[in-house]
Design brief:
By secondary structure, the protein is of the alpha/beta class. The chain has 8 helices and 5 strands; from the N terminus they run αβαβαβαβαβααα.
């Protein structure tokens, strides 16, 4: 029996608003709960996350992945990140409309990875809808966008029920 093939796929976390709480949630979840959480990787800008971890004084190694299959093995050594490069500088608390396309792309890419069997589920970090609306995002929020990306199939939003989301709410 191939144990690696039988293991569940890692979760994929979207970057959320780069200037918001999402990147900090992902860093903190890995730092404080990685022993209890299922493996996950983040679609985000590795340089931004590394700089944020340094600024916060959190010893979170950022491990840049070239493929989602590397996430499970990397998870115990650092926060696995599949790059989604940000075009503009991030200042905490100050949204930059130039980064909106990357935020939307991370959500779309996360769904594509799940549909391709390269991730087990999508976990979304908070977004700044106002900035995304200005960039052409025409959905009320994540749920409707995820439904469209899934081909119109209903999505299931679990707040406080999945192990990862419960842990993130505790951070």
């Amino acid at each position: 029996c191939n144990v690696a093939a039988a293991a569940p796929r890692p979760l994929v976390l979207t970057m959320g608003e780069p200037a918001g709480i999402g990147p900090e949630l992902a860093l903190k979840a890995w730092q404080t709960h990685r022993q209890e959480l299922p493996p996950f990787f983040l679609l985000a800008d590795p340089a931004h996350l590394a700089a944020l971890a340094r600024r916060l004084g959190w010893p979170v190694p950022i491990l840049t992945l070239s493929h989602p299959d590397e996430a499970r093995a990397a998870f115990g050594r650092g926060l696995p990140v599949l790059p989604e490069t940000l075009p503009a500088e991030v200042r905490p608390g100050t949204v930059n409309p130039r980064n909106a396309a990357a935020v939307i792309a991370a959500i779309r890419r996360a769904v594509e990875l799940v549909r391709a069997g390269q991730a087990g589920a999508v976990v979304t970090n908070p977004i700044s809808k106002a900035v995304l609306y200005d960039a052409g995002f025409n959905h009320p929020g994540h749920t409707e966008y995820l439904a469209e990306l899934a081909g119109g199939n209903p999505t299931r939003s679990e707040e406080h029920t999945s192990e990862l989301q419960s842990r993130l709410h505790l951070v």
